[in-house]
Design a protein that fits this description.
single chain, 32% strand
């Protein structure tokens, strides 16, 4: 499954959160995610304190556990999403 993760850092917490994130190595970041999550990409709007991340995992529990490691510092949403091919396939199922 593919998941879309979005976040908004809490007011007044952007600089401390960014400083903490900057100190986390790529290996440490992967360890925080755990073995059941594959990072596709992550993008940050540093000025607004928002961002978006796409991950793949067969475990909604693993993705939720990862989000919980950060939600003390920000509001986070986790949504399952599908690509164009799957959306078309599902749309075809709706056609009479």
């Amino acid at each position: 499954m593919t998941f879309l993760i979005t976040w908004q850092v809490y007011q007044g917490r952007l600089h401390p959160v960014l400083a903490h994130f900057a100190k986390i190595s790529e290996e440490q970041d992967k360890a925080l995610m755990g073995p059941d999550i594959k990072m596709i990409g992550r993008w940050h709007d540093l000025v607004s304190g928002t961002g978006v991340c796409i991950v793949e995992s067969d475990s909604a529990e693993a993705v939720t556990a990862y989000a919980l490691k950060w939600n003390g510092e920000m509001d986070i949403t986790v949504q399952p999403v599908v690509d164009d091919a799957m959306a078309r396939e599902m749309g075809e199922r709706l056609s009479p």
